[in-house]
Amino acid sequence: MIKIFKSEWLKQRKNTSKKFLIIAPGLSILIAILLVGPSIIESFSIYWWEAVFLYTLIGLLFLYDYKAEEAAGNFQNIYFRNDSIKIYIVKILLKFKDLLISNVWFLAILFFTSNFLYADLISLNIIGDLICLVLISITSIWVLPLLYLFSKWINPYILVTINSLICFLVAPFIAQSSFWFFFPFTYHYKIAYSLMYIKPSGDLDLTNHVTDVKMVVFAVFLSLILFIVSLLMLNWRLSNDPIVKK
User: Which three-class secondary structure string do you get for 36-56?
Assistant: First the structure.
């Protein structure tokens, strides 16, 4: 496992998608600056991050890795009977690490931008924002094994596009319904609302000042269960793939 980790670490260090770790949060904050005033720039930046750029970033990290493995001999470096699922697990863990790094960039850009443009006008809750962003990332990581799973049958560009559009256009409506827990794309919206009172529509709920810990725990639990199930499905696909080396 250590050799796999070192190998994937070296491969991902050369990945040009790293630039998106800074660009994605930067665009989230830029849109918020252009559309709203200082009073809700914090919440609106997080909204654009969760609604558009987080899932787009996840899709791009997957896509760059997929194309790199395809170019390196049609995936011959990852198709091994007993190690294939381990390789994918390491890939996902390293991409989760990238998401955490991008969250740090988000907070750094938000902090310096706010202090430069709106000094003395707003006070950021950096610790609260960090907790929210990390939990949003945790409740979104389930999508990675599913992207790898379905890339066997569906064009990866189409997968990434569908992934982003569902999160932005469909999930906000379902997140406000009573059956949201059947639709995993809503989990991170529930986290943002429970911790930061950001509605799936992007509005800030000024009447809510109570952190819903039960909702946070429930959303994280559901996402982790789905993540495990997704990994099992990916492992099943790899175990039954005729091109996997015996």
Answer: CCHHHHHHHHHHHHHHHHHHH
**CB 79, CB 218: distance < 8 Å:** no
**Contact yes or no for 184/142 (Cβ under 8 A):** yes
168: Cβ–Cβ under 8 A, 6 or more apart, which residues?
51, 52, 55
Largest CA distance in the chain: 64
User: What φ, ψ does residue 198 adopt, rounded to 5°?
Assistant: -90, 115
pTM of whole model > 0.90?
yes
As given in the structure block, the two tokens for residue 199 are: 């509605």
* Predicted confidence (pLDDT) per residue in 184-216, tens digit: 999 999 999 999 999 999 999 988 778 899 999
Q: How many CA atoms lie within 13 A of 49 on its CB side?
A: 36
Q: What is the 3-state secondary structure (H, E, C) of 84-152?
A: HHHHHHHHHHHHHHHHHHHHHHHHHHHHHHHHHHCCCCCCCCHHHHHHHHHHHHHCCCCHHHHHHHHCC
Contact criterion met (CB below 8 Å) for 188 and 140:
yes
